[in-house]
Design brief:
Radius of gyration: 34 Å
Shape: elongated
Structural class: alpha+beta
Order of helices and strands: HHEEEEEEEEEEEEEHEEEE
Largest sheet: 7 strands, antiparallel
Length: about 325
């Protein structure tokens, strides 16, 4: 009986060991599969890049304010289906003035631009014109080259393309990485770096928010570069869309607001505020909101958002809003972080 019990216990132990071996093998296989799906970076390599701050619709369609533009003779002069349409978009074939004689080659890419006119702003401290506001319409790619004309396909369209739109060689553009979600100090002190203002927004919006494009009066002459991050701020009490009286609603203490018996109206909670220490009259001198603002020490500025620069010209730059803790207006101030 004892021998049989030992044999039974041995069989149970062997079965338990076999089960544990199978479980260990399955665990190892599962970990191996995870490692293949999410491989660890090799020694000495950098981590995966952060997501871009701007999408193609902002990166290629933002537009800019160019101080001294130099336009080439390249322009869109026709369309394959112009007999039945006068506007063109992505996928359409168009004809451009410029062929082999102008050194155009198959595969060349051009930006379609549309100058809108000289731009200046009373919001900026810079004198004179800031430049020509230029709208970016899209991108085309040359598919066939003739002697003096070429055929191109519209590869990306931000707006409808028209005959007469101008062309420029498409510059390489890479979006700066999106900022990590760190703590935003709404009352941070100035950094003492170059500062300017938002002078306009794309499509001439007056109020913008996150992922929208704006133009600022800082450029290469102010030593700003693509990828620079800026704080958007405004002085306390500024930036309101409506105007209202700053005084209390109730009138100052005076006769006629009390009963003839109890005479309590002059000291009611609707009467004016008397300065402290009080004068000898309940009619004044009074404490007002305007007086408090005139006598108070400098207050911290109000930081309302952040932006990153996408494109820099001589006197201006194009930026995208990356953070907004409340509405942002044209006219708000910006400072390099």
């Amino acid at each position: 009986m004892r021998t049989r019990s030992l044999v039974t216990n041995f069989r149970d132990l062997a079965g338990l060991l076999a089960l544990l071996t199978v479980l260990s093998l399955l665990t190892a296989l599962s970990m191996s599969a995870r490692a293949q799906d999410n491989p660890a970076p090799a020694p000495g390599t950098l981590p995966a890049p952060a997501s871009p701050a701007a999408r193609d619709s902002e990166l290629y369609c933002a537009g800019y304010i160019e101080h001294a533009p130099n336009y080439s003779a390249l322009e869109i002069v026709g369309g394959e289906q112009e007999q039945e349409q006068y506007i063109f978009a992505r996928g359409d074939f168009v004809y451009i003035r410029g062929g082999a004689r102008q050194a155009v080659r198959v595969g060349d890419e051009f930006t379609v631009i549309r100058p809108r006119g000289q731009f200046k702003s009373k919001l900026s401290k810079k004198d004179g014109w800031l430049g020509v506001y230029t709208q970016e319409i899209g991108r085309i790619r040359v598919t066939e080259v003739k002697d003096e004309v070429s055929v191109a396909v519209i590869a990306y369209s931000c707006d409808t393309v028209l005959l007469g739109d101008l062309l420029r060689h498409a510059p390489p553009r890479t979006s700066p990485p999106a900022q990590a979600e760190d703590v935003f100090d709404r009352f941070a002190d100035p950094a003492g770096k170059p500062a300017g203002r938002i002078v306009a927004a794309r499509d001439y919006r007056e109020m913008v928010s996150r992922e929208q494009v704006v133009y600022i009066d800082l450029g290469t002459e102010d030593n700003v570069r693509v990828g620079d991050r800026l704080t958007v701020y405004r002085p306390v009490g500024k930036g309101g869309l409506t105007r209202f009286r700053e005084e209390e609603v109730g009138p100052t203490a005076s006769y006629g607001f009390e009963s003839e018996v109890f005479r309590g109206g002059q000291l009611s909670n609707k009467s004016g505020r008397v300065q402290y220490p009080p004068g000898d009259s309940i009619k004044g001198p009074l404490r007002t909101t305007a007086q408090v603002k005139d006598r108070r020490p400098p207050l911290p500025r109000k930081n309302v958002g952040e932006m990153v620069i996408l494109n820099v010209q001589r006197r201006t730059a194009t930026a995208i809003i990356t953070r907004a803790v409340q509405e942002i207006h044209t006219g708000d101030y910006v400072e390099v972080r």
